[in-house]
């Protein structure tokens, strides 16, 4: 057993609560917690909560998750609870990217798509996605403007997460990319503008055909998944849910353009149970 707040193993028994549940105290951060760990003060068991989050990782609305839980687990949960569980527990899942970092390839794609977030001037906000040629999402960013500054932010984020600059980055024709790429990656990274039609370039003495189809295809999945969210009321929630999606996409989802999931859902459970 480790502390749920600071992960210290320096914990001692601290009596029982009125229901007889063992309580613990952390000698490092001096906080108290009980056996249920992060699931404390929830009416439903952790199995039900984990199942709800697992189901929500598919393109299923919280209302549909509610219906499935009723049929399979015989419990009546409100769709608002399911939403709140995702908000509370998604940050634990997002830790997966620190526990199991991915080796990204050196050919990247960057693309933007529209999403609905309340508060944007027009009804759209922009979701920026940087992905690699192995269909992994490297970084995301959500902004109200589609300009060079925001392109820089997402590219910088991708560089920090992967720990390197790509050899080639493929983007659509948005003007800001050229300057943003040069600023963030320097001159060694080759910036290629391509759309659906492949552009032939010579790289490392090899002829390569590059198009942005892969990025467009990767964007189809968030589109499907985001569709059931029906837009977001707040920017921070939009980012949280999309990061939750990225973890699903990179580690847990199975789909035709990708190999097998990188981790089993059991690993996610073990992270959450800690
Ligand atoms: Zn602690």
Task: Summarize the structure in words.
The chain is an alpha+beta fold. Among the domains are: 35 residues; 146 residues, Nucleotidyltransferase, domain 5. Helix content is 40%, strand content 20%. It is built from nine helices and ten strands. Strands 6-5-4-7-8 form a five-stranded mixed β-sheet, sandwiched between helices. A three-stranded antiparallel β-sheet has the order 1-2-3, with no helix packed on it. A two-stranded antiparallel ribbon has the order 9-10. Strand 5 and strand 6 form a beta hairpin. Helix 1 crosses helix 3 and helix 5 runs parallel beside helix 6. The radius of gyration is 21 Å and the shape is elongated. It starts with 10 loop residues before the first strand and ends with a helix. The mean pLDDT is 86. Bound molecules: zinc ion. Zinc ion binds next to loops.
- Main β-sheet, spatial strand arrangement: 6-5-4-7-8
Q: For the terminal residues, how far apart are their CA atoms?
A: 7 Å
CATH hierarchy, class of the domain at 107-252: Alpha Beta
Strand content: 15-25%
Query: Helicity, in percent?
Result: 25-40%
- At the fold tier of CATH, the topology name of the domain at 107-252 is Nucleotidyltransferase, domain 5
CATH H-level homologous superfamily name of the domain at 107-252: Ribonuclease H-like superfamily/Ribonuclease H
Q: What general outline do the C-alpha atoms trace?
A: elongated
Helix and strand composition category: alpha+beta
By DSSP, the count of extended strands is 10
Largest sheet: 5 strands, mixed
What small ligands are held by the chains?
zinc ion
SSE series = EEEHHHHEEEHEHEEEHHH
CATH architecture of the domain at 107-252: 2-Layer Sandwich
Number of helices: 9
Query: What does the radius of gyration come to?
Result: 21 Å
Q: Quote the average pLDDT.
A: 86
Low-pLDDT segments, ≥5 res? none
């Amino acid at each position: 057993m480790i502390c749920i707040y600071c992960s210290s193993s320096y914990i001692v028994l601290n009596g029982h609560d009125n229901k007889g549940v063992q309580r613990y105290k952390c000698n490092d951060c001096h906080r108290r917690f009980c056996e249920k760990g992060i699931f404390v003060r929830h009416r439903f068991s952790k199995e039900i909560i984990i199942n709800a989050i697992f189901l929500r990782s598919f393109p299923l609305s919280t209302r549909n998750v509610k219906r499935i839980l009723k049929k399979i687990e015989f419990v009546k949960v409100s769709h608002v609870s399911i939403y709140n569980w995702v908000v509370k527990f998604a940050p634990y899942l997002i830790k997966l990217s620190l526990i199991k970092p991915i080796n990204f390839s050196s050919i990247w794609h960057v693309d933007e798509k529209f999403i609905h977030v309340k508060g944007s001037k027009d009804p759209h906000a922009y979701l920026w996605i940087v992905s690699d040629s192995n269909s992994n999402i490297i970084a995301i960013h959500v902004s109200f403007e589609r300009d060079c500054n925001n392109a820089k932010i997402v590219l910088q984020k991708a560089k920090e997460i992967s720990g390197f600059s790509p050899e080639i980055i493929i983007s659509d024709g948005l003007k800001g990319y050229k300057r943003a790429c040069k600023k963030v990656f320097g001159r060694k990274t080759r910036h290629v503008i391509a759309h659906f039609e492949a552009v032939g370039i010579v790289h490392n003495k090899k002829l390569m055909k590059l198009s942005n189809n892969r990025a467009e295809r990767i964007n189809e999945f968030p589109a499907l998944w985001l569709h059931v969210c029906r837009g977001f009321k707040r920017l921070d929630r939009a980012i949280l849910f999309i990061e939750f999606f990225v973890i699903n996409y990179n580690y847990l989802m199975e789909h035709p353009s990708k190999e097998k999931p990188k981790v089993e859902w059991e690993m996610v459970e073990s992270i959450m149970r800690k």
